[in-house]
Amino acid sequence: MSDLDKDAAASQAKSAASDEKPAAKSAIRLPASLRNSLRWVMVALIALVVGALLITFAFYVPTQQKLDQATTDLSQANQTIAGLDTDKATLTAQVETLTKALALAEQHTYLLQALTGVQTASQALADGDATAMTLSLQRASQALDSLAPNVDPIYKAALEDMKQNVALAQTKMKADINNALPHLELLETNLKLLEDNLFPNR
After folding, report:
1. Which CA distances in Å does 50 have to 36, 119, 127?
2. 169-178: Cβ within 8 A, 24+ apart
3. Measured between alpha carbons, how far is 119 from 136 in angstroms, rounded to an integer?
4. Which of 36, 44, 114, 126 could cysteine-pair with 143, CB 3.0–4.6 Å?
5. What region does 128 belong to: left with phi over 0, alpha with psi -120 to 50, or beta?
6. Residue 127 Cα to chain centre, angstroms
7. CB atoms < 10 A from the CB of 109, how many?
8. Residue 128 half-sphere exposure toward CB, CA atoms < 13 A
9. By CB neighbour count within 10 A (0-12 exposed, 13-18 middle, 19+ buried), where does 181 fall?
10. CA atoms lying within 13 Å on the CB side of residue 180
11. Environment class of residue 73 by beta-carbon count within 10 Å: exposed (0-12), middle (13-18) or buried (19+)?
12. What is the pLDDT along the chain (202 residues), one digit of tens a residue?
């Protein structure tokens, strides 16, 4: 091959290379409008992320803190309620205990009133004072009436017998106050036995 042919071939090769470079550049270069659009998209995405972060810190975090505080307050309130329930149960038990103690005290009071009435009637009989004896027997009868609804049913029959003896004493003393003595003695004995049964630890 002559020198002229070599130069021509080299020139053609350079020309072809120079033609390929612009083609390659034009193949990967984006249009200006598209590049601008991509820039705006990136800006919008960044703004969206920043906005989301701002919303999170401005609203979510305080709201979460309030929720945590409300949860803590609710837990404390529940503990307070549990404590109050315990106190209520304790107070209820104390009230029940005091109520039972009061009922027993009332029973004992009525029983002692009946016993005192019988003993006073016996003393009035010994003194020959029919008026005092009548009043004492009335008090004993009233005390037995008050006692009857408050005692255990197993003692109901015994109380009825006592009330009958009071009535017999009131009836028989009209002829002679000494006729009431056996009934008064039986009443006193039975009332003391009832007291021993109802209040053994008095």
Report:
1. 21, 101, 111
2. 169/121, 169/137, 170/134, 170/137, 170/138, 170/141, 173/125, 173/130, 173/133, 173/134, 173/137, 177/125, 177/128, 177/130, 177/133, 178/125
3. 8
4. 114
5. left
6. 63
7. 13
8. 0
9. middle
10. 31
11. exposed
12. 555 455 555 555 555 555 544 444 445 676 777 777 888 888 888 988 888 888 877 777 788 888 888 999 998 999 899 889 898 999 999 999 999 889 889 999 999 999 999 999 999 999 999 999 999 999 999 999 999 998 889 999 999 999 999 999 999 999 999 999 999 999 999 999 999 999 988 6
Amino acid at residue number 116? T
Q: Kindly tell me the sign of the dihedral angle through the C-alpha atoms of 52, 57, 59, 64.
A: positive
Tokens of 79: 């503990």
Q: Which domains does the chain have, with CATH numbers?
A: 97-198 (1.20.120)
Q: Residue holding tokens 């209520």?
A: 88
> H or E segment at 100?
helix 61-127
Q: Which one, of 135, 106, 123, 115, lies nearest residue 189 by Cα?
A: 115
